[in-house]
TrEMBL record:
Protein name: Amino acid transporter
TM region positions: 6-25, 37-63, 69-90, 148-170, 182-201
Any Pfam family the entry gives: LysE
This protein's record includes keyword Membrane: yes
Domain of life, source organism: Bacteria
Organism per entry: Ectopseudomonas composti
Keywords: Cell membrane, Membrane, Transmembrane, Transmembrane helix
Amino acid sequence: MTEWIAVITITLLAVISPGADFALVSRNSLLLSRRAGVLTALGIGLGVLIHVGYTLLGVGLLLQQSAGLFNSLKLAGAAYLIYLGVRMLLSKPDSATHSNAQKPAADGAALRTGLLTNALNPKTAVFIVSLFMQIVQPSTGLATQLGYGAFIALAHVGWFALVALCFSAGPVRDRLLAARRWIDRLFGGLLIGFGTLLALASQHP
């Protein structure tokens, strides 16, 4: 019970902290659709499961002990965030509008973007590895650890799905959609900023 309380409390505090995931879900919900925002949130949850999976397999310990490996993850994540940011900065206003024929591709892109953004996020890697190593005891059963991992993933999906619902609400979206070019620039700049900070941090293990 003590472990569960710690996992729940720390997870909820971590998931609501602003970061690249929040910026991405907000942007997709506002400029694309509620569906795109929710799918991005689902992709983020799948990315969390990847971190949980390698942590349970013991790879997380290697990641924690190897500065080179961890810096490689940071650089990969930084490059992806900067790539997304540049795409947003260069996007045209009409690119936010999708026809029905484009929906399947847009759905897949939203899910994939959420997945890759979180899977390459060193902040999430550090959070999950540290959580399992500092709070979870060696005597904790595998089923319980899997339960922790499932809760962490569902907490991410639930929170970011809520963010998607808020940013795609009619009154909010209608007012801001007219300024979508500037919104793309804002969120693109934020992602480039996050990526740049990650890249700089990888130079100082």
